[in-house]
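Researcher: Watch the backbone:
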Amino acid sequence: MESIKSHSYEVHLKELAEAALKQHIAKNDYSQVFVLVDENTKKYCYPVFLKKMDSEVGCVLEIPSGEIHKNIATCTELWEQLSKNDGDRKSLLINLGGGVLTDLGGFVASTFKRGIDFINVPTTLLSMVDASIGGKTGVDLGALKNQIGVINQPQMVLIFPEFLQTLEIRQVKSGYAEMLKHGLIKDEEYWTALKDEKNFTDSKCIKKSISIKNEVVLQDPTEQGIRKILNFGHTLGHAIESYFLDNPNKITLLHGEAIAIGMILEGYLSHELKGLSKLSLQEIKEVFLKHFNRVILDEEDIVSIIELLKYDKKNSHGDVNFVLLQTIGKAVTDVKVPDNLLHKAFAYYKEQ
């Protein structure tokens, strides 16, 4: 299975990933190799990963798992640990974990000593097909998603699908939502095949999703134009995720679970504003509700979620900018949406 070439790095899968890791470390005179893990990847993934390396790990850095720890306080702890363990500008940080860990680890590496090399080794489906690809790094500001960060590319991304066997099904489905999004924004044929695909963790499906995202990122690495289409479902989805994260009376939603709701809502907006057919809208709703339980949202919840939209990263000059669909497979960016339609979108989601 061929590697996927991005701007300054490659995404390697399976045996090629192991070979690329060994070759990269052998040819670079790193003063020290650090590996960042959480308690789950330390237990289930690190022993397996260690066997794939021909070199010693200088220090293992551990953070608690979960979005709640994706913040500057955790970064400060890691910067201090890197410094105490003699990290310098010739050190390498390997991020072994899901999207929270690769986002945060990439940001820590990009800012320590004004930037050290890092490699992403995603261990969840979500991080394999989305979070670890494209160079976005960063942390949350309180409950607000990804408010602090930089775009900085890793040395490489290494995909070992065997790590998916360590996950509960809920985590796997979270990544499936992002794979479905790739079809909706760029490839109707992929969407059609994937929505009924039971073996969506197959290497071919993973590679296809990575390729779609990579193709978009290559055209627009700093998100000035077409890369914005990757945010379909994320304007409302991120607001929902933040609201549930910050509300002790609510269950915490995984990223993909929140984005699935966001894609139904923004599918409705696409129908109202950009001509997405009623048939396509209904198909989108049915597919996501088939794989993700409907979440109860009362009017107070909806008002609070809409209020959070003002913090979205895509906003400009006080306007909230949405990514919507003209058809399945074709997205448009920078769409302004009237408030009354937002409430109608939530009503559509709640309809049985």
Summary: The mean pLDDT is 95. The first helix runs from residue 15 to 27.
